[in-house]
Amino acid sequence: MIMNGLQNISEIKKCPVQYVLAINDTLNVISGKWKLPILASILYGNYRYKDIQANIDKITPRMLSKELKELELNGVITRNVYDSTPVRIEYKMTESGKNILTVLDAMVDWGVSHRKSTFKHSD
């Protein structure tokens, strides 16, 4: 049987388990409609809840709170409470979270390229 030009099944290379686990870990942290826009907003200087919410069109307060909690639990952001009047709460990227910028940049590059090739073929 020929599969994708391969002569037999023994020629198929297996994906390393660590590679699959790493992809699953990444997807678990950034999955969903809102996490990447939230991270991008924080990366570009929107640290307070209201600023993040204003920066992301159509996100509900409940969803923003839920996603911020999940990102904090996953060690991507920290929630800092400042003893002031009124109390000030800011979200910042952890060192691990800052490294997501390379992922976001790669996704933007791919998205721009994909959009260009898709629209070019649809003419």
TrEMBL record:
GO terms for molecular function: DNA binding. It comes from the Bacteria. Keywords: DNA-binding, Transcription, Transcription regulation. Residues 15-119 form the HTH hxlR-type domain. PANTHER family: TRANSCRIPTIONAL REGULATOR, MARR FAMILY, TRANSCRIPTIONAL REGULATORY PROTEIN. This is Putative transcriptional regulator. It comes from Belliella baltica (strain DSM 15883 / CIP 108006 / LMG 21964 / BA134). The lineage of its organism: Bacteria, Pseudomonadati, Bacteroidota, Cytophagia, Cytophagales.
